[in-house]
Structures are given as C-alpha cells and as structure tokens.
Design a protein that fits this description.
heterodimer; A: 188 residues; alpha+beta; 2 domains; 4-stranded antiparallel sheet; 5 helices; elongated; B: 179 residues; mainly alpha; Arc Repressor Mutant, subunit A; 9 helices; 73% helix
Chain lengths: 188, 179
C-alpha cells in the first residue's frame, strides 16, 4: 500500500493543514494507486449515501406518537423550550408583572399568564390555565415564587408529523427572587 | 390540560449553552442518525424512538455536566447501542427479505432510469448484506458524515483500523456492484 494512504484518509476528512493537503493532492495526481482508490471511494460514497437516503425515505413516516413516545417528545420539546425561554425571560425582567407581551415582540411564544400565589388571578388566555392550580399544588414549587406560563405550539418545537396537529406545549417557569429562571414544568 | 397529562419538571441551571448546543445538535444530526439506524435494520418508528432516547440521554449528559468533547460520536454511540439493545435480534434485520418499499423510494424521471436505479440499490443492498457487520457499520457511519476518528470512537476501534476496514468494504462493494 502506498505510503500516503494514511494521509489520504486525513485528507478525506479535511484534517490536513493547507500545505499537507496540497502535497497529498499533488501525490494523488501522480500516483495511480491513490488516484484509483480516491475515485472508487468517491463513487461508492455517493452510492451508499443515495442508498441510505432511499432506505430512510422508504421507512414508514410516523404520523402519531402514542403513549410513552409523547412524553419522550415532550422531553425533546423541553430542550427546545429552554432555548425559547432564554429569549423570553430576559425580556420579562424588563416588563411589569401581569403584562402580556404583544405578539409583535415575541412572535413564536405567547406569554399567557403571570401568576403569583398571593395575587388575585388574572384573566387567563390559555384553555389549560383553569386546570393548572391543582397540578401546581402537587409539585414541590415554592409558592412564594412567581411563575410565568408560556404556550408553545408543538410545530415550533418538533418536526412535522411528530405530534398530532393542534397540540400545544405549556411551560410554567419559576422565577427566583434575583430574577433568574429557577425551574420549568412542561406539559404536552 | 387533559386529566392524564404528566408534567415534566426540569431544574434550571446552566441551561443557556447546554440547551443551545442540544438544539443545534438535534437539527444537525437527527436525520443522519435516523438514516444510520434505518440502514442498520430498524423500522422508521424504532429509529425515531432510538433517536429520541439518544437526545434525552444527551440532555441528561449535558445537565449533569458531562463532557462536550466528541459529542457527535457520543450521540452516534448512544444511538448505536440503543439499536443493539432494542434488537438482540440484530442478525434477523439483515437476513430479512430485501425491503420492497425501496420501490417507492426510487423516484426517477423516466421508468427506464427508475429501473436502473432500483437495480443498483438492490445490488448494493445485496452486497451490503454480505459484508461483515463491522465493515457495514463503518460504511454506514461514514455515510452518516462521521470522520474516521469518530467512527473509531463509536465502534471502539483505532482510526487506522477504521481506515483499513472502510477500504476493504469499498473494494468489496466496488467489485460486487461494478461501480
């Protein structure tokens, strides 16, 4: 085997410095063995990639995630929701409590409610808000800490077809006294 | 909220970079992971489940302060092991009949070209089945965009061994598929 075979692999992976890469390219131009190896590799790579794509396309797409999978999906959604919160929470620190952020300022996420244990409930704009207090009492949240509820459309979090149409995730975020986000609860 | 909904409680700490990283990785690697798992022999639904499990593991890993080094190969390794655990009947996958749904995946402009493409894929599928498991996995991981070093991390092999293995597999496929 040609002494450049090891470098050829590194070259294919784009891990060589510019000088070494140029050296390998010059060598490939002059070495029939390496040239043939590289061309075969490239042709086969394209075939295998096309084959893998065809296999994936042929696999049945999932339309509805049942049972456990919904929870797993919610978990994946939670990861994305956290990113969304990073955008929303800093803005909320500058906004008076019980204020609804206009859609124009937060196009992807609607802040539905700002709740506090000692404050009279405000009008709730999300249909799930009425059932929320029972769930909240079952958790270990500190009641003195304010919560912010956000509604996140499933299609903003998960790929198309991952959950049934119209599903919305709701997340309650506990805000620590220093204004930082302390805890989040997500419901599908 | 429906009565049987189960809330997921997440502690808030170090979320900023971890969540961004997990989201970026999800967008970048979800499809390559699915493709790899389907080619290993999992059904579409099984592959979806394994990928979701892998990303949940990633979230736990990052939340627990796990290393972010070589995170691509880490994810592929978790998915690879998940597939193996899911099918202790791994062999049955590649001894199963050739996938008739490959027909629907070949969507070429003319019927003649479609037939040629289908024949090419069937030859490739036959040749892939005859490869030793390690060679097949190396090829599929390579098709998934992993570098030789990363493939070595997923499969627990030295980089040079990965190179030799991919070389052997390509030579065999080239002979059998006349590529």
């Amino acid at each position: 085997m040609c002494e450049f075979s090891e470098k050829l692999i590194a070259h294919l992976d784009g891990e060589l410095a510019a000088g070494e890469a140029a050296e390998v390219e010059r060598h490939v131009g002059a070495c029939a063995e390496c040239c043939s190896r590289l061309r075969t590799y490239e042709r086969l790579s394209h075939c295998v990639e096309a084959y893998c794509d065809a296999k994936l396309d042929a696999s049945t797409p999932r339309t509805v995630m049942p049972g456990k999978s919904v929870l797993l999906g919610a978990g994946a959604a939670a990861v994305v929701a956290m990113v969304a919160l990073l955008v929303v929470v800093p803005r909320l620190r500058d906004v008076p409590r019980s204020t609804v952020i206009p859609r124009a300022e937060a196009p992807a996420i609607v802040v539905a409610q700002t709740a506090h244990a000692t404050v009279a409930p405000v009008k709730k704009t999300h249909r799930r808000a009425a059932a929320a207090p029972a769930q909240v009492r079952e958790t270990n949240w500190l009641p003195a800490e304010p919560a912010i509820r956000i509604a996140i459309p499933a299609e903003a979090l998960l790929p198309p077809g991952a959950v049934p149409a119209g599903v919305t995730f709701v997340a309650d975020v506990r805000i620590a006294p220093d204004g930082s986000a302390r805890q989040m609860i997500v419901w599908p | 909220m429906s009565g049987d909904s189960v809330p997921i409680v997440l502690p808030f700490s170090r979320f900023a970079t971890d969540a961004c990283e997990a989201t970026t990785l999800y967008r970048e690697l979800r499809k390559p992971l699915l493709r790899y798992l389907v080619c290993l022999g999992l059904s579409g639904d099984e592959a979806q489940d394994v990928v979701q499990d892998a990303f949940l593991s990633l979230h736990r890993h990052l939340s627990a302060g796990g290393s972010k080094e070589n995170i691509r190969s880490w994810l592929f390794r978790v998915a690879h092991n998940g597939a193996r655990n899911r099918q202790n009947r791994y062999d049955r996958r590649f001894s199963a009949p050739i996938d008739p749904e490959m027909d629907s995946a070949v969507d070429e402009a003319t019927p003649e070209r479609a037939v040629l493409e289908k024949e090419k894929f069937l030859r490739l599928e036959m040749a892939m089945r005859q490869l030793p498991e390690t060679e097949r996995e190396c090829l599929l991981l390579r098709a998934g965009g992993l570098r030789y070093r990363e493939i070595g991390e997923v499969l627990g092999m030295a980089t040079s061994t990965v190179g030799d293995t991919v070389d052997r597999a390509i030579k065999k496929l080239a002979e059998k598929c006349n590529v």
